């Protein structure tokens, strides 16, 4: 009986840290010169958590977090390619790579060690040219809820007399404005203040980043770029993808709950079986 119980417990414990698809690689496309954030899916790092970010076929360590020992480090990586371009979110452990270039394309891996379990997520980062084929084209952008997304102007640098306007939704509500000549670099909260504290402008390219994306952010975004006497308009249709990757802590808590329930039921069954067997022997 004891052996049966131990086997049941061992099988249940093996469930911790198992993913729906451990081989899944999330594709991330970004325009050269912009920033990209790779997310851990954590809401908050706990005291005993450890997070390791690695890059490339040699899995070079580029960032490490250990709250218990006070470590929040980024590393320059192979050939110091990431020098001064990596940023860690101290709350979630997410990694931001700034000023992306072609050599940054490739496989990124994050290992999250929580208590006795270990989770791994991988991201395949590629560079898009960010250029629209024609003025009527609507570029589709898919993003996971809670992540950030950058909508690109395709400019390399804003000139003195350029003006950039970002608008959102059917009513084309103004959500950002840039005019280098008058020193204007403003973001606005938008309808019902939905974008409050969630919009960021790239002061060099005019690209717009929306952080902490939610379902109400889906829709049509339009940027108008006025250069001298010409005017260009580009549109982006932002939609939310269904990312079934859950928060690691929530997954672990749920798994432990299931394990406890299974072990509890198994224990009751074994006790009842043992009592019944003894009565049968008498």
TrEMBL record:
Record SMART domains: IG
Domain of life: Eukaryota
Xref: Pfam families: V-set
Gene3D superfamilies: Immunoglobulins (2.60.40.10)
Stored InterPro entries: Ig-like_dom, Ig-like_dom_sf, Ig-like_fold, Ig_sub, Ig_V-set
Start and end residues of each Ig-like domain: 22-126
Annotated keywords: Signal
Signal peptide (residue range): 1-20
Keyword Signal tagged: yes
PANTHER family, per database record: CD48 ANTIGEN-RELATED, LFA-3
Protein's name in the database: Uncharacterized protein LOC113040287
Organism: Carassius auratus
Gene name per UniProt: LOC113040287
């Amino acid at each position: 009986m004891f052996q049966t119980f131990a086997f049941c417990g061992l099988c249940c414990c093996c469930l911790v840290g198992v993913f729906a698809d451990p081989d899944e690689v999330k594709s991330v496309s970004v325009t050269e010169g912009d920033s990209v954030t790779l997310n851990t899916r954590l809401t908050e790092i706990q005291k005993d958590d450890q997070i390791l970010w690695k890059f490339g076929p040699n899995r070079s360590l580029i960032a490490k977090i250990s709250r218990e020992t006070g470590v929040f480090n980024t590393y320059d990586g192979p050939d110091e390619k990431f020098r001064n371009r990596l940023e860690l979110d101290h709350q979630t452990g997410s990694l931001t790579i700034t000023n992306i270039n072609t050599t940054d394309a490739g496989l990124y891996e994050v290992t999250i060690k929580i208590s006795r379990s270990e989770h791994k997520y991988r991201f395949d980062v590629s560079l898009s040219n960010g250029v629209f084929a024609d003025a009527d084209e609507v570029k589709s952008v898919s993003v996971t809820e809670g992540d950030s997304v950058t909508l690109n102007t395709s400019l390399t640098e804003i000139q003195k007399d350029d003006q950039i306007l970002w608008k959102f939704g059917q009513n084309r509500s103004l959500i950002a404005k840039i005019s280098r000549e008058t020193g204007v670099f403003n973001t606005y909260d938008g309808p019902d203040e939905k974008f409050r504290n969630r919009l960021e402008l790239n002061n060099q390219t005019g690209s717009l980043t929306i952080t902490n994306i939610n379902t109400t952010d889906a829709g049509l975004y339009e940027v108008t770029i006025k250069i001298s006497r010409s005017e260009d308009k580009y549109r982006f249709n932002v939609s939310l993808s269904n990312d079934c990757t859950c928060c690691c802590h929530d997954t672990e808590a749920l798994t432990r709950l299931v394990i406890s329930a299974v072990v509890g039921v198994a224990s009751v069954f074994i006790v009842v079986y043992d009592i019944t067997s003894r009565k049968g022997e008498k």
